[in-house]
């Protein structure tokens, strides 16, 4: 099985907020699972999202990572990629740089509520969850 | 349609499974369409194991959403699936083309 979609912090935070934008993220994850794919979450997206969420939101993400039998996987930041991220362009956060790197590595889509942050990528590489 | 699982032995070891992994043996009855499908596969145990694990993962995912108060619908999942498939296919086709051109 391969990673079909990589969630950026905005997607993960939207899920954890359990608000009006959460359902689209859940449906995305269910659709990826039905199509025999995995949902990838870069480690730096995890860190940024947990920092932005309250305890309820963090518990929702805990369940996502620990009780879905591997449908959602955390993508590690490996040593050789760390320098790439350290040399990222100005204005790109480390978490977003990690999302780009992971999506490129797995030939996966970036799922986001902020497509403008990935405006330089091919339009077929980005899934706008706000559409 | 009748499906009967008869669990009759536990702890046996079968080829094709990791050493030390205990397995259980079942006798099952399945509908004809499933029987025809199983007749085409070389390793029925492996095939059924994979199908059950897939179903378990799907159930766990949906249960996690339900516990969070998120009621996903089959229609919503299907619609999102169409969007993802279309973009993923296009993305990977472009990657393949650019790799061929670079080669």
Question: Can you put this structure into words, describing what you see?
Answer:
Chain A is of the alpha/beta class. The longest helix of chain A is centred in the N-terminal third of the chain and has 13 residues, at 22-34. Chain A has one domain (3-128): 5'-nuclease (Rossmann fold, 3-Layer(aba) Sandwich), CATH 3.40.50.1010. Chain A has helices spanning 9-16, 22-34, 43-52, 55-66, 79-86, 94-106; strands spanning 2-7, 37-42, 72-75, 109-112, 126-128. With 103 residues, chain B is α+β, with helices and mostly antiparallel strands. Chain B has 3 domains: 1-30, no CATH class; 42-72; 74-103. Chain B has 3 helices and 2 strands, in the order ββααα. The chains are: A alpha/beta (131), B alpha+beta (103).
How is the secondary structure organized here?
The complex is a heterodimer of chains A (131) and B (103).
Chain A (H helix, E strand, L loop, with lengths): L1 E6 L1 H8 L5 H13 L2 E6 H10 L2 H12 L5 E4 L3 H8 L7 H13 L2 E4 L13 E3 L3
Parallel strand pairs in A: 1-2, 1-4, 2-3, 4-5
Helix pairs in contact in A: 1-2, 1-3, 1-4, 3-6
Chain B lengths: L4 E8 L10 E6 L3 H7 L5 H24 L6 H29 L1
Antiparallel strand pairs in B: 1-2
Give a quick rundown of the structure:
The complex is a heterodimer of chains A (131) and B (103). By secondary structure, chain A is of the alpha/beta class. Chain A has six helices and five strands, in the order βααβααβααββ.
